């Protein structure tokens, strides 16, 4: 999309994940509910996937945990969409950068946890 191209030119080293996710969702024709659900699912599934890889957890058990969390993920996405229609100071959090911060920190380690 033109918006993604503009962002790539403006931020050649990358942009914050929520900004990119929003632009990709918009380019794909998704609305706020679908974008919020994707963000909520990613926030949970990424760490679960990492735990399977790092701790040799049973992937079927991890998938079962994600399945059990489905109602909570959906509820979180619905709450995010509702909150987005109100004043910014009423959002549940001003930001949630921990996933990005830990990913950036991990990229500087001499030994990486994942090399995919």
From TrEMBL:
Presence of the UniProt keyword Chaperone in the record: yes
Molecular function as annotated in GO: nickel cation binding
Lineage: Bacteria, Bacillati, Actinomycetota, Actinomycetes, Kitasatosporales
UniProt-recorded name of the protein: Urease accessory protein UreF
The entry's keywords: Chaperone, Nickel insertion
Signal peptide segment: none
Pfam family, one: UreF
InterPro entries associated with the record: UreF (IPR002639), UreF_sf (IPR038277)
Superkingdom assignment: Bacteria
């Amino acid at each position: 999309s033109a918006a993604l191209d503009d962002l790539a030119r403006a931020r050649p080293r990358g942009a914050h994940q929520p900004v990119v996710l929003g632009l990709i969702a918009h380019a794909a024709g998704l609305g706020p509910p679908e974008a919020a659900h994707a963000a909520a699912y990613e926030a949970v599934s990424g760490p679960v996937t990492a735990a399977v890889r790092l701790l040799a957890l049973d992937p079927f058990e991890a998938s079962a945990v994600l399945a059990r969390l489905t109602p909570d993920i959906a509820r979180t996405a619905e709450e995010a969409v509702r909150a987005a229609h109100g004043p910014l100071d009423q959002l549940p959090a001003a930001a949630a950068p921990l996933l990005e911060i830990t990913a950036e920190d991990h990229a500087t380690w001499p030994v990486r946890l994942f090399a995919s």
